[in-house]
Specification:
Elements: H1 10-22, H2 52-73, E1 79-81, E2 85-88, H3 89-95, E3 100-108, E4 114-119, H4 120-130, H5 149-170, E5 177-184, E6 198-206, E7 215-221, H6 222-227, H7 244-258, E8 264-266, H8 275-280, E9 294-299, E10 302-312, E11 315-323, H9 325-328
Antiparallel strand pairs: 1-6, 2-6, 3-4, 3-5, 4-7, 6-7, 8-9, 9-10, 10-11
């Protein structure tokens, strides 16, 4: 429709006015239809979190954390990653024992602040190992007591080990940086998120079996992780070696391909000719052309070899001079 052109003609507009004035318009369409409200931002209407990338990150973090602890504290601690869990912030905070080392951390480019939680038993076992003792779970410690100066130093070393492992573990999927903001001992003083907000908890158990030495938790706000869905890259895992049956099938397929016939074409030359000469041609005429020297052998339109045209044993023949297939398949 051009600019200034009316949507309805004057006659159509007049007809509409007459129908409205007469009261015979009748009932319109889509009137009185019941509708239910739908909140796209409601939690129950949002898709579930795909934890595949986080599980890959945790698998790498498990290995890097063990190496980092060995480097920082000479502590070769068994580390095992647990399943990724999504829960409410208040529910998670209530389960944290007091005391614990809670480090509020900015993990860029995540939008909100994250939490690095070191169980007190992890710190105690690291202190024991640092001073030459045997790491073991401790009991009878006073609840809510402050960490000693030595325990704070060790907790800092463990935190740095976790940050280093985080950077390495995230690297194949996303480039991250960890910035320490502040720390607390009492979980109730952290006040990181609203009680009903959801968080993603990734937990790493220290020790194994009966020698459980506490856990290290990395807690991400769920909304921050969801914002990164388009930026996360799934690491490509190495393909498993082919089984015997797969190898036999591949061998038979290659053999079947060897039996497929192809037509090889060599362009012997091109002869420019005018329309008048073409119209005067008759049976018995000879069309001379110079020897073009080298040409190309093509299969299905793809040039494979450079060839030289000649004869062998009284028959026309071509001689393969060089391969040009690699130039056409790059």
């Amino acid at each position: 429709m051009s600019e200034g052109e009316k949507l309805l003609t004057d006659e159509e507009l007049k007809a509409i006015e007459e129908v409205v004035a007469s009261g015979n318009l009748g009932e319109g369409y889509n009137i009185g239809i019941e509708a239910d409200s739908y909140d796209l931002t409601a939690r129950e209407n949002q898709p579930a979190l795909d934890t595949e990338v986080l599980e890959q990150v945790n698998s790498r973090l498990q290995r890097h954390l063990r190496l980092s602890l060995l480097k920082e504290l000479k502590y070769d601690a068994p580390v095992s990653a647990e399943a990724v869990e999504v829960t409410e912030y208040a529910e998670y905070i209530q389960k944290i024992s007091n005391p614990s080392s809670l480090s509020i951390t900015k993990i860029s480019p995540l939008k909100d602040e994250c939490l690095c939680v070191l169980d007190a038993q992890v710190i105690y076992s690291c202190v024991d190992n640092w001073f030459g003792g045997s790491p073991r779970p401790l009991s009878g410690e006073a609840a809510s007591r402050e960490f000693s100066r030595t325990e704070e130093v060790v907790a800092k070393k463990v935190r740095l080990s976790v940050y280093s492992a985080l950077i390495e573990a995230w690297a194949p999927s996303l480039e991250v940086q960890c910035e320490f903001l502040r720390s607390e001992v009492n979980p109730l003083l952290v006040n990181l998120l609203a009680d009903n907000e959801q968080v993603v908890v990734t937990r790493f158990k220290m020790g194994g079996g009966d020698e459980a030495l506490g856990a290290v938790d990395i807690v991400y706000p769920l909304d921050s992780v969801k914002l990164l869905r388009g930026s996360l890259v799934k690491a490509v895992e190495a393909k498993a070696p082919k089984s015997r049956l797969e190898q036999q099938w591949a061998s038979r397929l290659r053999g079947a391909l060897d039996e497929i016939p192809f037509e090889a074409v060599v362009n012997a030359g091109e002869i420019p000719i005018s329309f008048a000469d073409l119209a005067n041609l008759k049976v018995g005429d000879t069309i001379p052309f110079k020897n073009i020297g080298r040409s190309e052998l093509s299969v299905n339109g793809l040039s494979i070899f450079e060839v030289e045209i000649g004869s062998a044993g009284g028959n026309a023949a071509v001689k393969l001079m060089s391969s040009i297939a690699s130039e056409n398949t790059v």
